[in-house]
């Protein structure tokens, strides 16, 4: 079976359900036993699966081979899974993300969707449900793995930093989430409310001035990176990340 650093696993073509044999998944889970269990179960369901144990490794492997979908634990040891999802979206990855979480509170679920997740399952879960949710996401996803990304820019969820042309700058958690939202939809104007919802916890009271202050800080940090895209203002509407 697949685990950190191991080869991917293919299920034999004689599997009972071959509808997703060609779908390649990353299972990103730092609990070794659970990761192996998920990989084995999903292989038996007809998927091709690779298990990885950290957010940084997931980003590295995604750069080497693009996935059709992700099963992503929110509580990784090196990064919040929601930050990893934002980092993937900022790279232009549009493959569906199914979150695994021990948190069942509504604000936690909302934050996962706002980070770019497509679905979630609360631990403990039924393995068969994971497979069926993935099939549903893949049917709806249209198979698009990559979309336009912010040129040359990436965000690192394990260090909460922005990286461009070999240089990096540290970001606060709020700055990271703001940049992740903007970089996930480069060139598109995000409304102020969208950015507030992406960067602050559900129910937080955030004034327009507070958002503007954070955007100004983020602009100053991006200027420290060679060739980094800039944040443009759409007056009365919101902000956009543009070359």
Report on this structure.
This protein is α/β, with parallel strands linked by helices and 243 residues long. It has two domains: 24-141, Response regulator (Rossmann fold, 3-Layer(aba) Sandwich); 153-242, Arc Repressor Mutant, subunit A, CATH 1.10.10.10. It has helices at 32-44, 55-64, 81-90, 106-114, 127-141, 173-183, 192-199, 208-222, and strands at 24-28, 48-52, 69-73, 97-101, 119-122, 153-156, 161-164, 167-170, 190-191, 230-234, 238-242. The strands form three sheets. Strands 2-1-3-4-5 form a five-stranded parallel β-sheet, sandwiched between helices. Strands 6-7-8 form a three-stranded antiparallel β-sheet. Strands 9-11-10 form a three-stranded antiparallel β-sheet. Helix 6 (173-183) crosses helix 7 (192-199). The protein is globular and about 50 Å long. The termini are far apart.
Mean pLDDT: 86
Given this structure, which CATH class of the largest domain is correct? Answer: Alpha Beta
Total count of domains: 2
Shape: globular
What is the end-to-end distance?
Answer: 43 Å
| Total number of helices | 8
- Structural class, judged by helices and strands? alpha/beta
Instruction: Report the strand count.
Output: 11
Spans of at least 5 consecutive residues whose pLDDT stays below 50 are 1-21
Radius of gyration: 18 Å
User: Would you identify the CATH H-level superfamily of the largest domain?
Assistant: Response regulator
Helix content: 25-40%
Strand order of the largest sheet: 2-1-3-4-5
Portion in beta strands: 15-25%
Major β-sheet profile: 5 strands, parallel
The helix/strand series, from N terminus to C terminus, equals EHEHEHEHEHEEEHEHHEE
Under CATH, the topology of the largest domain can be stated as Rossmann fold
CATH hierarchy: architecture of the largest domain: 3-Layer(aba) Sandwich
């Amino acid at each position: 079976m697949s685990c950190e650093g191991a080869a991917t696993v293919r299920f034999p073509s004689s599997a009972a359900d071959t509808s997703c044999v060609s779908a390649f998944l990353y299972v990103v889970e730092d609990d070794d036993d659970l990761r192996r269990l998920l990989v084995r179960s999903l292989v038996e369901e007809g998927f091709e699966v690779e298990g990885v144990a950290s957010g940084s490794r997931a980003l590295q492997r995604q750069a080497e081979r693009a996935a059709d979908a992700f099963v992503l634990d929110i509580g990784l040891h090196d990064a919040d899974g929601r930050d990893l999802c934002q980092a993937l979206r900022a790279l232009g990855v549009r493959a569906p993300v199914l979150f695994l979480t021990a948190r069942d509170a509504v604000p936690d679920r909302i934050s996962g969707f706002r980070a770019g997740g497509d679905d979630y399952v609360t631990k403990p879960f039924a393995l068969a449900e994971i497979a069926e949710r993935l099939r549903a996401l893949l049917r709806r996803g249209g198979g698009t793995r990559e979309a336009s990304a912010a040129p040359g820019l990436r965000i690192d969820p394990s260090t909460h930093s922005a990286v461009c042309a070999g240089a990096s700058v540290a970001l606060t958690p709020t700055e990271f989430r703001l940049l992740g939202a903007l970089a996930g939809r480069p060139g598109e104007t995000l409304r102020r409310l969208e950015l507030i919802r992406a960067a602050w916890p559900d129910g937080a009271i955030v004034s327009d001035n507070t958002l503007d202050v954070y955007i100004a800080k983020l602009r100053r940090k991006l200027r420290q990176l060679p060739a980094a895209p800039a944040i443009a203002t759409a007056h009365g509407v919101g902000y956009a990340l543009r070359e």
